[in-house]
Design goal:
Distance between the termini of chain A: 40 Å
Strand content of chain B: over 45%
Mean pLDDT of chain A: 91
Helix content of chain B: under 10%
Radius of gyration of chain B: 13 Å
Shape of chain A: globular
Distance between the termini of chain B: 37 Å
Helix content of chain A: under 10%
Structural class of chain B: mainly beta
Largest interface: A-B, 26 and 30 residues
Shape of chain B: globular
Low-confidence stretches of chain A: none
Oligomer: heterodimer
Order of helices and strands of chain B: EEEEEEEEEEE
């Protein structure tokens, strides 16, 4: 089965500083990787995905992620953090489900706190 | 992007009663919908996958008689928590995949906070 790992439960960063939320993956074959953000008591919002092509993927709200095959990583980044970026971030990988379709397998999530 | 609407956003029910949660894809057809459960400060746990017109496939450890899933149309899936108990209190999230987008990303509903008293 495919899996992703988010090694940090929490990341704190000062407003205006660059932020990185880490994700590593374990897959057989080519990975389909995703980042989602969740605000309190809300569902998940799609940020970006990597399927193929350029290793640097640009997504919503100024976020980007770098796919690194040699390090099996897909870290989420933003050049300048905003207080409104404070939320729970999930990395996910597409996995083959028992229902004959693809499903997402999520990491445990990383809570990002941007300090004013 | 595609919109998935989940209703209700919040529900409180008494022990022993049943609660139905709806998940609708508003502007696309979703042949496959997923139901997740999320405990506080934890990740999403996939409960089941439902394909339109067929029975849902449940993950190991999820009671199919307790969590009834119906996916009767390409835009609607429902999750019914039967004979609810306080331990069923949780945040339930649905997601749907737009079959017109190459079967890659999924879109999520806003979630339902279920509290069983």
């Amino acid at each position: 089965a495919q899996s992703v790992a988010q090694p940090e439960d929490q990341v704190n960063v000062a407003e205006g500083n660059p932020l990185t939320v880490k994700c590593t993956y374990s897959v057989s074959g080519n990975p389909y990787l995703f980042w989602y953000v969740q605000y309190p008591n809300r569902g998940l919002q799609f940020l970006l995905k990597y399927i193929t092509g350029d290793n640097l993927v640009k997504g919503s709200y100024g976020f980007e992620a770098e796919f690194n095959k040699s390090q099996t990583s897909f870290h989420l980044k933003k050049p300048s953090a905003l207080v409104s970026d404070s939320a729970l971030y999930f990395c996910a990988v597409r996995d083959y489900g028992g229902a004959g379709s693809y499903q997402l397998t999520f990491g445990k999530g990383t809570k990002l706190s941007v300090i004013p | 992007g595609a919109v998935v609407s989940q209703h209700p956003s919040r529900v409180i029910c008494k022990s022993g009663t049943s609660v139905k949660i709806e998940c609708r894809s508003l502007d696309f057809q979703a042949t496959t919908m997923f139901w997740y459960r999320q405990f506080p400060k934890q990740s999403l746990m996939l409960m089941a996958t439902s394909n339109e017109g067929s029975k849902a496939t449940y993950e190991q450890g999820v009671e199919k008689d307790k969590f009834l899933i119906n996916h009767a149309s390409l835009t609607l899936s429902t999750l019914t928590v039967t004979s609810a108990h306080p331990e069923d209190s949780s945040f339930y999230i649905c997601s749907a995949r737009d079959r017109g987008l190459g079967n890659t990303e999924a879109f999520f509903g806003q979630g339902t906070r279920l509290t069983v008293v």
